[in-house]
Amino acid sequence: MQVAIHAGVAFSDEGLVMSSLGANRRILADYRTAVLGPRRSRQFVKVVSDSILQGQPDAETPNSLAELVTGNPNLDRVILSSDKFFGPRRTALQHGQIYPFAGKRTAYSESLLDGAQVEVFAGLVNPVVFIPKILASIHEDHSQDILASTDLSCLSWLGMVEDLLDLAPQVQLTLWEHENSPLIWGDIIRAISGLPDEAPLHEEYAFLSSLLTEAGQRHVLDIVRKGDALDRTSRREEMANILDEYARLEQIEEELDMPGWNADIVEAFTDLYEQDLATIRSMQDVRVLQI
Fold first, then answer.
1. Closest CA relative to residue 277, chosen from 178, 134, 170
2. Is 72 exposed, middle or buried (0-12, 13-18, 19+ CB in 10 A)?
3. How many CA atoms lie within 13 A of 166 on its CB side?
4. What's the rounded Cα separation, in Å, for the pair 51 and 290?
5. Which of 19, 29, 8, 3 is closest to 87 using CA atoms?
6. Which of 81, 155, 178, 255 is least crowded, fewest Cβ atoms below 10 Å from its Cβ?
7. Under the phi-then-psi rule, with left for phi > 0, alpha for psi from -120 to 50, and beta for the rest, what region is 245?
8. What is the Cα gyration radius of the chain?
């Protein structure tokens, strides 16, 4: 049994992965793949979290997870999605790291799913966007503790990725830049689903279209109707050009609300993010989906 865990991250897909997977349930069924709904995904994360808090799993914990993900013998792959799999938001910025418990939680989940082939998927978000949103979403006491104890300028995704590779080396890790998601959405959904590159998808360009003016949406439809007239590279270039020309700025621009952060700080965070992404792309044990 393959267990594919879409771990978010927070403020990346905002439920779009589950929406796309739901739109393609029949296609997934043809490949003996099923999607756990939000309730069962939350149950999975709760069982893992409760077990970690207890210090060791009780005898029923592995059975509880097995019932959630391996209950149907006709399935080869089960998908669950939760942006709290790496940890709740109040723990997302601790110990000088982003999601410091991601590696431990992933390794622990794999041990509980003994015999399953576990894969983890996550879209990384520019820390200049991620950090303020995390701080704004948690209780003020937690955010003040983070600000008092953490050098925000040192936070990057590298520590999390290295922990995942070190602590859960048997887990296949697939990452992408959230900022590229509209242009590679089909690749993301196929990767999570374990589908071949040529597998058709319903609403493959719905995310991209949601960011465009009506004129841009018409151009996307024109390209989709051409079908195989354009090869993969040409189609992606056309879609990128459409996004550049017809994007609705209110849909793609992020408003930053972080006291004391000026343009220089934003640029510094973005430069560090790009350096980290370059390092991650060079890691042999990480699959990175790119434009």
1. 178
2. exposed
3. 11
4. 36
5. 8
6. 255
7. alpha
8. 20
Cα dist from 191 to 12, 187, 281, whole Å = 17, 6, 17
* CA neighbours closer than 13 Å in the CB half-sphere of residue 122: 27
Measured between alpha carbons, how far is 98 from 4 in angstroms, rounded to an integer? 22
**Two structure tokens written together for 291:** 């434009």
Strand pairing class (172-177; 117-124): parallel
Q: What is the pLDDT of residues 190-201, one digit of tens each?
A: 999 999 998 999
Express each pLDDT in 15-35 by its tens digit: 899 999 999 999 999 999 999
Q: For residues 65 and 269, which has the higher predicted lDDT (pLDDT)?
A: 269
Amino acid letter, residue 241:
N
Indicate the residue type of 32.
R
Contact between residue 76 and residue 193 where contact means Cβ atoms under 8 Å apart: no
Q: How far apart are CA 253 and CA 249, in angstroms?
A: 6
Among residues 128, 129, 122, the alpha carbon closest in space to that of 176 is found at 122
Q: What pLDDT score does 138 carry?
A: 94
- Going by C-alpha positions, the residue among 194, 8, 226 that lies closest to residue 105 is 8
For 249, residues 6+ apart whose C-beta sits below 8 A from its C-beta are none
**Cα→Cα distances 205→35, 79, 155, 246, 265, Å:** 20, 21, 33, 14, 34
What the block records as the tokens of 189 is 């959904």
Q: Is 135 left (phi over 0), alpha (psi -120 to 50) or beta?
A: alpha
| pTM of structure | 0.93
- How do residues 212-232 score in pLDDT, each as one tens digit? 999 999 999 999 988 777 888
